[in-house]
Amino acid sequence: MKKILLFMVLGAFLLTGAILSAEEKKAADTDYDEDTYGPEAPIVWTKPVESVVFQHKTHTMDAGLDCDSCHDDIFVMEAGAAQENEDFTMASLYEGNYCGSCHDGSTAFASDTRCTTCHIGVRGHARMIGGDSKEGGEEGHH
Amino acid sequence: MKIDELEQLESEDLSTITSTERRKFLKMGLAITGLYLGGSVLSLTTVRSAHASSGVVPEPGQYPYNPHYSMVIREKLCIDCERCKAACVETNSVPEYGFRTTILERRRALTAGEHETTFMPVLCNHCNRPPCVRVCPTTATWKDKETGIVVMNPSRCIGCKTCMTACPYNARYFKEEIRAVDKCNFCYDTRLSKGKKDTACVEACPADVRIFGNLADTESRVFKLIHAPDTMVWVLRPETGALPNVYYINA
């Protein structure tokens, strides 16, 4: 009798756990549709400075922009292609090019504010592409 | 003196001291100790006389060196591109296991589950009261009398690493190649002594985060930045009393 009770309790725990984790996954996976919102993987520019991130999800799914809000006038479709251009600089952004088209202080936060929102840096990039950066881990504790 | 005369004299040993006398003596000792305790350990000084030492930025004209080299870091502009690190490594041949300057990272929670990242460049603070200099048993590191830079003489270093432990800023590392401790010296040997006006990290910074200069010169940019009105200036670990010369601002 005791054994059965134990199994029942254990089973109940496992079942709720499984259901909860499945629900979480579902919410993350199924809501995001790459055809509607663009590639899920973040775009990382490493030129002219390391490293700047762009998330389609933040701009399309969360902020409600369409593909043709940016493509192909502001950015070409090819991921990360903009960094090959000479004028892909902060100065250019302040003149309203690239991200600066919206990040001007009225449509979205101005591109000369909140630097680290997009500039994730060498550390942020290393973390994104797998594990903590080697030096990042070491520097913390000498 | 004759022996029998000596025997007549009153004894001066402890047995003749009465307990009242002993108590008096002890009380006197306690009173003196108490006086000093009250004055310095418990800091029972008036607020008025204490205010002068509360700020981290010295009063103009009270910089002990000239040039008084210092660095101002405009923290919120740092984007961790680490060009400063690369420039430092190249200029001062820093091995990959150590650093003279590096970038630390902090995360602060905002509303709605968002986070804000702050990058914090760190380097030797060239303290006015450097704990590393105090502990070095071979005087291999000292504060340069002219510039205030905390310099190293590697050939005098025995590698005991006591300075590394003493440094509140973790700004020293042991360089295997020279079997000595190495640290930032504001590029003194590699740049300043060759006539250049700034350090390698300052030159490399694309965001104008690091500003280097002479604090004793009231016309210098570093002086103007940390003495500007409406500016919050802070230093790292002020409680150590080391009086660092690297200042942080967000302006």
From TrEMBL, chain A:
Keyword Transmembrane helix applies: no
Signal peptide: 1-21
Superkingdom of the source species: Bacteria
SUPFAM superfamilies: Multiheme cytochromes (SSF48695)
Keywords: Signal
InterPro entries registered for this protein in UniProt: Cyt_c7-like, Multihaem_cyt_sf, Nanowire_3heme
Pfam name, any one: Cytochrome_C7
Keyword Signal found: yes
Record-annotated Cytochrome c7-like domain positions: 52-119
Protein name: C(7)-type cytochrome triheme domain-containing protein
Organism: Desulfopila aestuarii DSM 18488
TrEMBL record, chain B:
Record keywords, A-Z: 4Fe-4S, Iron, Iron-sulfur, Metal-binding
Pfam family, one: Fer4_11
DNA-binding among keywords: no
Domain 4Fe-4S ferredoxin-type: 115-146, 148-177
Keyword Iron: yes
Residues passing through the membrane, by range: none
GO MF term set: 4 iron, 4 sulfur cluster binding; metal ion binding
SUPFAM superfamilies: 4Fe-4S ferredoxins
Protein name per the record: Protein NrfC
Annotated source species: Desulfopila aestuarii DSM 18488
Phylogenetic lineage: Bacteria, Pseudomonadati, Thermodesulfobacteriota, Desulfobulbia, Desulfobulbales
